[in-house]
Amino acid sequence: MRKSYDQILRIAGNVVTVRAGGVGYEELAVVSAHRGMSLAQVIHLEGDHVSLQVFSGTQGVSTGDRVRFLGRPMQVPFSADLLGRVFNGSGRPRDGRPEVQAENVDIGSPPVNPVKRLMPSKMVHTGIPMIDVFNSLVESQKLPIFSVAGEPYNELLARVGLQADADIILLGGMGLRHDDYLKFRQAFEEGGVLGRTILFVHTAADPVVECLMVPDLCLAVGEQFALQGKRVLVLLTDMTAFADALKEIAIVMEQIPSNRGYPGDLYTQLARRYEKAVDFDGAGSMTLLACVTMPGDDVTHPVPDNTGYITEGQFYLRNGRIEPFGSLSRLKQQVNGDTRDDHRAIMNACIQLYALCCESREKRDMGFEMSAWDKRLLKYGERFETQIMDLAVNIPLFVALDRCWEILAQCFAPEEVGIRKSILDAHWPKKPQ
């Protein structure tokens, strides 16, 4: 039986501080107040002073209330009964159905030992040409989507969840508006994948500590499914809301702020989550795709800046499209050499020609005379944007490669695209007789 403490030293926001010994970081406790019992979690240790974030807030809590430590971290029940369910940031049902009765697993465990990992080598097909052709997603990869507010990043995540070849889909929503949560649920239900999807959703109206729990809940459950041999896809939105929750708690704790007020351990906190992406030796895999909103479209903001050091590339979402410049999957070379012999050639040629098209557009906008070559580049750019870059385009990889060839043949001669002759001879579209 864990010892109870009946003297709260300090109450600040939703954080209470007690004097206690033998308590671990992230350990759970129960605060017994006049209004009933509230769950809390240890978020700071300084000597014998223990600070706890109270899940349901500190309204009604007084300094004379009792705090009892449970001797364990936050846990989540794990079983196949989780599939098709919606939970909040503390793991309780949000869908009005009963709680899942199953064996509990700890959340927030360390990342997997690298010795037990496999080198990523399997492509995750999404049906989105700007991902499949130009920046292939790989099983066990961790990739962020850098975006600004107003861009359709949640719609993009939903599409990846609907179309990616994964056995289990986990969605972690942080600071979501209620209508965004309903859109995710409706998209998965109408797409027929809700039966293999689990949603952990924190809305803007929920306690801030639950926002911090969402990634850990998703990753703990996903890891267990991966150990059973499943290919798991974890979708997190929005990691900037997660970082803002860290910042809010750090301010309450009066910690010395770092860049733009974020806590000094922001990098560590983000890395603890991203590094859970893994391809198990002899089991399944867990792939992580996370949205990171950039305030003011500033990539030097602490959240995208730290994220870029941890993850294996990034997608930039601008003007409703995945931008070809700046977007990068550092693991694409692990898979795009095994898809089709023309994959790498068409990828390089299309991006190089699109870059030349952007230069021709600048010349046109500045009033310079357009050459025949410039006009062909402009024609190519328009077709490439509407038939490949547009997020509404939904085609398999090989169809997308064939479409790229068709666009090139409509705008250029074979010798103008910079692809070696052996590839051209095998794939250049033949004119109808």
Lay out the secondary structure.
Layout: E1 4-5, E2 8-12, E3 15-19, E4 27-33, E5 36-46, E6 49-54, E7 66-73, E8 75-77, E9 86-87, E10 104-106, E11 123-124, H1 129-132, E12 137-138, E13 142-147, H2 153-163, E14 168-176, H3 178-190, E15 197-203, H4 208-227, E16 231-237, H5 239-252, H6 266-274, E17 278-279, E18 285-293, H7 302-310, E19 313-318, E20 321-322, E21 328-329, H8 343-365, H9 372-389, H10 397-411, H11 421-427
Parallel strand pairs: 9-15, 13-18, 13-19, 14-15, 14-16, 16-18
Antiparallel strand pairs: 1-7, 2-3, 3-6, 4-5, 4-7, 5-6, 8-10, 11-12, 17-18, 19-20, 19-21
Helix pairs in contact: 2-3, 4-5, 6-7, 8-9, 9-10
Task: Explain how this protein is built.
- With 433 residues, the chain is α/β, with parallel strands linked by helices.
- It has helices at 129-132, 153-163, 178-190, 208-227, 239-252, 266-274, 302-310, 343-365, 372-389, 397-411, 421-427; strands at residues 4-5, 8-12, 15-19, 27-33, 36-46, 49-54, 66-73, 75-77, 86-87, 104-106, 123-124, 137-138, 142-147, 168-176, 197-203, 231-237, 278-279, 285-293, 313-318, 321-322, 328-329.
- It is built from eleven helices and 21 strands.
- The strands form four sheets. Strands 9, 13, 14, 15, 16, 17, 18, 19, 20 and 21 form a ten-stranded mixed sheet that branches.
- 33% of the residues lie in helices and 24% in strands.
- The longest helix has 23 residues, at 343-365.
- It folds into three domains: 4-73, Beta Barrel (Elongation Factor Tu (Ef-tu), domain 3), CATH 2.40.30.20; 81-334, Rossmann fold; 343-427, no CATH class.
